[in-house]
Amino acid sequence: MIDWKYGGYTLAWWLPVIITLSFTSYTIKGLPQLITLLVELAVILAIDFFYERKHPQLKKSNRETTISHLRGICVCIFIVLFLAVPLFLPNFHATKFTFIFPLLFIVFSDLLTSFFSRAKKVSLP
Description:
mainly alpha; 5% strand; flat
């Protein structure tokens, strides 16, 4: 079963992270880049913390997968793609895309597994 609500929440969490990381890494250089990235990370994590406190069903620790071994299968496929793409694309390491490339595989793996999850069932004593 696909959980659109949690998948959309995960997508809405990762999208600003990718956009701010990309924008900051390609426009700012040096020490200001590090400071800006740390501030962005702190703001995103603070928003995430307070939102998940208000909505505990969206915490990653309160979720379970509906397809067994999906995360492992995704990680294996993405590792193969991560190793194969630079081999088949000439001058891949000369592009600016190489910085964000590993992060995109982590994001896609997390997004795919978040769509195929459900809230854990709580057993009462």
